[in-house]
Amino acid sequence: MINSKQKENVFSKRIDQSFKDLDRAFKFVGRFFKELFQSPFEFREIIQQCYEVGYKSLPLITLTGFVTGIVFTKQSRPSLADFGASSWLPSLIAIALVRTLAPLVTALIAAGKVGSNIGAELGSMKVTEQIDAMEVSAINPYKYLVVTRVFATTFMVPVLMFYCAFVGLMGAYLNVHANELTSFVAFFKRSFESITFLDVFSSLFKSIVYGFTIGIVGCYQGFNATQGTQGVGRAANASVVLSMFLIFIEEILIVQVTNWIRFY
Predict the structure, then answer these.
(1) All structural domains of the chain with their residue ranges
(2) Does the pTM exceed 0.70?
(3) Using omega within 30 degrees of 0 as the cis cutoff, is the peptide bond preceding 40 cis?
(4) Other C-beta atoms lying within 10 Å of the C-beta of residue 245
(5) Alpha helices (runs of H) in the chain, residue ranges in sequence order
(6) Measured distance CA(243)–CA(115) in Å, rounded
(7) Measured between alpha carbons, how far is 100 from 102 in angstroms, rounded to an integer?
(8) In a designed cystine with 154, which of 35, 53, 212, 248 is the match (CB 3.0 to 4.6 A)?
């Protein structure tokens, strides 16, 4: 039987370990900003990672964005029709996509696809001692592996977000045109009547934050993977779960700040 003193010791050790992990995570993030502006700059690897993050995610982003636009339009039409406000449908879709759906959908897809890939890739390199071999070869593994991947996710997630919003609007247009015979020009004119600079800026800012979160979490989990192949699996899983959790927290905070700016 475990007595109360032993339970207190176990609890105390867990608290200490949590603070140590938190301190290590903050140091890992701080090192990124330090290494980002120091030479050498791995431009070729950055371009390669942008290709991996952006181009290879296009099919999934295209399908998801298109379906999101169609489904949201189908779900919104009956409610607006009950109030005789079907003409507001393009504006409603554009506001929903630009403000929330496009950034959030893109970030969640990237967290599942890109975040897991980064965590598994770096975790595999860690447990097979490839990262240690890079240090022996006078190569800065953090600069080559972490900075390039985090920069790529931070840059490409906003690009994918705007693409997702466009594809979603195209899906919505096809649905609206099939039901109301609305022209292409009229649909997009109504769509952007209610979109403000604050909406676009807040979505861009959210996407940058989401992209940085996905990249840094995936790299941190992979860089600290242990215990062989099981550790690689845990790193990939933790990259997805923690990234999504942080994305939802960031979404709440940014929306609160944006609403405060919009109304005050």
Answers:
(1) 41-263
(2) yes
(3) yes
(4) 13
(5) 4-36, 43-53, 58-82, 89-96, 102-110, 116-127, 130-136, 141, 148-180, 184-191, 197-223, 228-263
(6) 8
(7) 6
(8) 212
